[in-house]
Every structure is written in C-alpha cells, then in structure tokens.
Amino acid sequence: FKPGIVAALNELGNTAVGQGDYARARSSYEASLALSRELQDRRSQAFALGNLGAVARLLGEPKQACELAKEALALLRELGDRRNIPTTIGIMAMVASSRGQSERAVRLFGAAGALGEAMGTPQAPSNRAAFAPDLADARRRLGEGAFAAAWAGGCAMTLDEATAYALAGEAEGATPDHRPSAGRQRSPLTRREREVASIIAQGRTNHEIADELVVSQRTVEAHVANILAKLGFTSRAQVAAWAVEHGLPHSQSHSAD
Q: If DSSP codes are grouped into helix, strand and coil, which group holds residue 61?
C-alpha cells in the first residue's frame, strides 16, 4: 500500500511541475522522500531527491539543487541503477547551466543524451524541450567551436566517467559570464600540465613530449592522465581542442614537474 503512495506522490509532483506550481511539486516530492525513507526504499529516495533537485533549480536555488541532484546520483551509483543515472546527469546539467557553467553543462547534457541512447532509454520529449533553452544559451555563450568540443567530450564519456565528472563538483575557473581573455583563464591544470596540453595540441606523442621536456615518458603519461581526469575528458583530441580554445601557446621554458 505505502509503495503505491510513494509513486502517487511523485506523480502528483510531476503534474504540479507541468502546471508551473513548483511549491506544490516540492511538497509532493518531499512527502514521497519521507515515505520512501520510512520504507527504506533507496531507489525511490533517489527519484525523489532528483525531482527535488530539479524543482530547486526551477525555484532559483542552484546550490540546493546541486546538492540534491548529487545525493540522488550518488545513491543511484551505489544501487548500480545504471539506467536511471543519465536522467539525473541531465538534471545536474541544468543546474550547471543555471550557475553560468556553460561548458560543464554542455558536457553533462552530451553525456546524458548519449548514455540514454546507448542504454535504449532516450530522453523523453519533455526533457529535450526542458534542456533546449539551456543548450541554446550555452551555444551563444561559448561559441560554436567550444560548444561542439564540450558536447563531443560529454558524448565520449562512459557511464562511470560521466558519473564521476558530475559528482566531482564545479570545474575550477571563471564562469562564462565573467570569462577572462583566452590564454589567461584560470585553469584546473598546473603550469606543467598546461605545457603538456599545448604540446598535445601539436599532435606530439608521449615519447616526443618526454624528449622535448627532458623528462621520462612515465612522467608524461602521469601528466596526461591528470589532465584527462581534471578536465573530464577521455581522449587526447579533446585535450587538443581544449588547449586551442583556451589559447595555450607552447612554452619553451622547462619548468619543474
């Protein structure tokens, strides 16, 4: 009996969202969450948390939305519920967009869409319609090249990579609304990692990079692994596109590792 109430409360929340009554939607989702916790139904808890995150975003509470969506995603990962993870990643993409993090948002949108298609659970038309304004805004802010690079980066992620990227938090750096000029943006990479990224953009192999920087190939491999992890990328091509987009010139100085 009670599991049916949990589902009904979620549906009431969905209906309220469709009607634009976000306060009522939040109340329904909160009731669903409370009951699912009483029943120790962790999957329903994850659904309610994700829905509450989406509503918090609609109510202009991006910090709370991020926390709720992360909690939902972490719970789904613990449960091994791979089929429902892409939907929650899509919610986190919307949260990133609302915080002005256009590049991160596009990467998450790309991952959510590609993973859903791969699992045979493509995005519902209502979700695609909800994502469209954020994607259009991100395209305007980033420009076609950076938008395409971010989208490709997201689409290339595996489920585990996309989940880890979504849970890792905000990428370090300025938001698109306050981006410094190319080449002077704050970056999550160290000076040496930026140097390696710029050489990767020249199409050089790890062996060639090691020779140029006078370090071991193993050291270069470690730098490349760090770059991929920090930027949420899965290929050298993505790193090369990122280096070009961020105006990284190759430095001739050989700084310490």
A: coil
